[in-house]
Amino acid sequence: MQDHGAFDDDGVIVEEDEEEKAERERKERKERMEKIKAEAAKKAEEKAAEIAKEEAEKRANGTASGEASPLAIDVEIEEENDRQILAAITPRAKTAGDPDSDNEEEDEEMRAGDVDELGAEARKELERATGLSPRKSKQADLEQNIVYDIFDKSDTVAKAREVKAIDRGTNALATENFDDKEGYLTFQMGELFFDRYEVKRVLGKGVFSTVLGAEDTKYPKEQTKDKKPVNVAIKIIRNNDMMAKCGAKELEFLKLLAKDGGAEKHHIVQLSDDFVHHGHMCLVFEPMAMNLREVIKKFGHNRGINIEGVQVFSKQMFQALKHLRKCKIVHADIKPDNILINERHNAIKVCDFGSGSYINECDITPYLVSRWYRAPEITLCLRYDYSIDLWSIACCMYELYTGKVMFPGNSNNDMLRRFMETQGRFPNKLIKRSTKKMIELGRPVDFTDDFKFMRIMIDKITKKETVKILTIDEKPVKDLLKQLMPTQLQPDQARKVKQLCDVLHGALSLNPDNRFSIEQCLHHQFIKEPFGFVPKRREQAPVNATLAT
Fold first, then answer.
1. Tell me: the pLDDT tens digits for 283-316?
2. What CATH code is carried by the domain that includes residue 272?
């Protein structure tokens, strides 16, 4: 195909010089961006009109209807009641334990959040591998290395979305370098990936990847059932050997989990395509609305969502975990950020398998899983299995209902203390095995020879570490039920909260051998018993009838 050129009066193509060509391409890009903006404005108007029309139909018919996008997965929920529950997620009822005002100061360590030590370790590993020295400014380090939630609506992410992509220009030498100095792919809005996906927006940026929102041009909106463009999320792995290995492993897991429709049936995020773009592995996923951390903030007002919503989401998380076990995969990084909710708010999907491993490849490391969702056997440097994912899910369940992190420790030592406050002391046999392994690995131990806990404390003034020897009681000092239900609730609410407390105790056993199995969780009353269920009382035989016999 001939290159573009200018036409003379006789209609003959005249070859362009480099400057004319560059000017023409700039004009074309500008026209393309104006077209995109016009389409976005038109789409917004159409959506507003559609919403108004649906509201009118709801008022007229008393029913709600809607169609999913072509790539949206319509997950069947067993109970019809679940759809009604998830149609309008509401905050948990305010209790005496909650702050009176949203502006009242709270204990910051208990607010919903996350600590990603794996991300920090990855940054250090990247610096060692590339020879890049750490930044001098701590503030600059925070700004450059912050891990963004994919669907976050915060000001920080909004600013990231406004950052303009690098203009490669027309210099052939410059266009061959598609990476920035940290290995992230540079891109342009409106750029076409894989001759198919047109970049529309930035969804997020993390240590391992960048996530872009795009439209699938293979399915023009004129050809779709709802006359809307097909949106996708493209995860672009950083151009680095370590990151590429994690991306390849994640792709392998996603394909295995999706075999025979497994991902669609068991609440695993759906991979629709994968390709390599300028040396970067790209994974294409179905569009999702937000993650569970955003659900807590948006629908739970930072105090958690209603118990009915927790019940339904918990069931779906357990189903995902059951499928992971069937495929012999340990996720190893389950947290609210890695559990997404669909656009219809009736199903969750587990995502981000870059830290996962097969069950026979689990290596002992004290920094696996984000700290606040890390199981005690990891902290103690003991062998682990599928049950570390169950522990993480239990922590997510608590956070969903209360809006607070269950174990907001600032170190592994602090995490052990918090575990024992809620679950009691560790069995001596676990402490013995942990001490032996820690000495073998050259790591400091957390318990004395007579099984007392050595709490590491840092002086706020001198910043020096001190060790305080604590004798831990067999019974926990904190009542989990009181944390879940600080005040009296309605009988039906109280019944479900007590059931939640019971399943949390079973899933958070300090000894992994005594922890609930996935089957026990799925068949627990908290999951199986519908909300509002009233158990039948046993009828006693009449006194006269008993005497007559």
1. 999 999 999 999 999 888 878 999 999 999 999 9
2. 3.30.200.20
